[in-house]
Automatic annotation (TrEMBL):
It comes from Actinomadura rubteroloni. Its main location: cytoplasm. Homodimer. SUPFAM superfamilies: Thiolase-like. It is found in: Cytoplasm. InterPro entries: ACP_syn_III_C, ACP_syn_III_N, FabH, Thiolase-like. The active site is at C126, H268, N298. This is Beta-ketoacyl-[acyl-carrier-protein] synthase III. Residues 269-273 are annotated as: ACP-binding. Residues 121-200 form the Beta-ketoacyl-[acyl-carrier-protein] synthase III N-terminal domain. The gene is fabH_1. Residues 252-341 form the Beta-ketoacyl-[acyl-carrier-protein] synthase III C-terminal domain.
Length: 349
């Protein structure tokens, strides 16, 4: 499909084009780690994990598989779903990139044979995919791109403390991707708006403390534990519920949707009790919440595209459905967007 370039008046920025969802795809690594396997090395059990989180298993990468590898595979699937083999921008949301520098997105673009396209990473933890969608929408709106591949990918298994039962049971690896093209706001698939926020005062609630300038400029030897993800689960739980519910409500108000317009809500898949409480606060029937974490755990930046791909691939999520997406994570950072689901082929995960 050939798109007209953004119409631009001299000295004036054109912001009239919408970002339209054209394809979606996702992947998890093959190795399944179930709750019983974790219970053999940690003081935990299947019943506790299922009851307190809703998670039954997660997928972890084998040695040698990187975040970039998963991102490229998800990207390939999204391109196939969109029926295209080129984009002019790649945005990768991740907090577990292949290395500290450079960004991983250029490597993903290269792996996919996309040429010398614009490519950069977005770091917003579990809210990263929504932030990356918003960056893509901005680029499309001003004519900086005609088509963008947005990927959310994380491999947290490499940064989990094997002795920390509060994180090791939760996180899984995965990647999900979407192709967005420039189009009109009234087309099916158009992203209808964004609501984003952050609160840096809560940055220590979920963090990898080491590896950055804070640690390196302190002039003390790095502590091995600083390489691990740590999380204050109870505080994060409360923030997750409040921030996602508030953000969702603000977004719905802004775009003029009531709860009856929400066929499905794809909320960040951190804990099924968080998902259910958001439903209750928004007065959405719980059956309208997509739940995928039972099979993949919390896949961080990949969680929303994985949940959407799972539901679309299984035929539950269908063309015309109203979809609310909302995410929350370290930073603290959060965000929401919504879309009327377009007709498209989706490969099952
Ligand atoms: N297995 C068995 N017992 C566990 C356990 C585990 N894996 N983890 C904690 N416990 C124990 C605790 O030690 C505590 O025991 P105590 O009462 O004897 O002190 C008890 O279970 C309750 O611990 P608590 O931390 O209050 O559990 P919780 O119900 O809050 O569940 C999380 C812990 C991490 C699952 C939950 O807080 C959570 O999902 N948080 C949100 C994470 C999130 O939203 N992240 C968002 C961005 S990534």
């Amino acid at each position: 499909m050939v798109l007209a370039p953004a119409k631009q008046e001299r000295g004036r920025c054109n912001v009239s084009r919408a970002a339209v969802l054209q394809g979606i795809g996702a992947v998890v690594p093959p190795r399944v780690v179930d709750n019983d396997e974790l219970s053999r090395s940690l003081d935990t059990n299947d019943q506790w994990i299922r009851t307190r989180t809703g998670i039954g298993q997660r997928h972890w990468t084998d040695a040698g598989t990187t975040t970039g590898d998963l991102a490229a595979e998800a990207g390939q699937r999204a391109l196939k779903s969109a029926g295209v083999d080129s984009v002019d921008m790649v945005i990768l949301a991740t907090s577990t990139g292949n290395q500290v520098m450079p960004a991983t997105a250029p490597e993903v673009a290269e792996t996919l044979g996309l040429g010398r396209v614009a490519a950069h990473d977005v770091s917003a933890a579990c809210a990263g995919f929504i932030y990356a969608l918003s960056s893509a929408a901005g680029a499309l709106a001003i004519g900086g791109a005609e088509r963008v591949l947005v990927v959310g990918a994380d491999v947290w298994s490499t940064r989990l403390n094997p002795d920390d039962r509060s994180t090791a049971i939760i996180f899984g690896d995965g990647a999900g991707a979407a192709v967005l093209r420039a189009g009109d706001a009234d087309e099916p698939g158009a992203l209808l708006g964004f609501e984003l926020g952050s609160d840096g005062s809560g940055r220590e609630l979920a963090q990898v403390a080491g590896g950055g300038s804070r640690e390196l400029s302190a002039g003390r030897p790095p502590r091995p534990d600083d390489a691990y993800l740590t999380m204050q689960g109870k505080e994060m739980f409360t923030h997750a519920v409040n921030r996602m519910a508030e953000s969702s409500q603000r977004l719905l108000d802004r775009i003029g949707w009531g709860v009856e317009d929400v066929t499905w809500c794809a909320a960040h898949q951190a804990n099924v009790r968080i998902i259910n409480t958001i439903a209750d606060v928004l007065e959405l029937p719980r059956e309208r919440m997509l739940v995928h974490l039972d099979r993949v755990g919390n896949t961080s930046a990949a969680s929303i595209p994985l949940a959407l791909t799972d539901a679309a691939g299984a035929g539950r999520l269908q063309a015309g459905d109203g979809v609310l997406m909302t995410a929350f994570g370290g930073g603290l950072s959060w965000g929401s967007t919504a879309v009327r689901w377009p007709a498209m082929d989706v490969l099952s995960i």
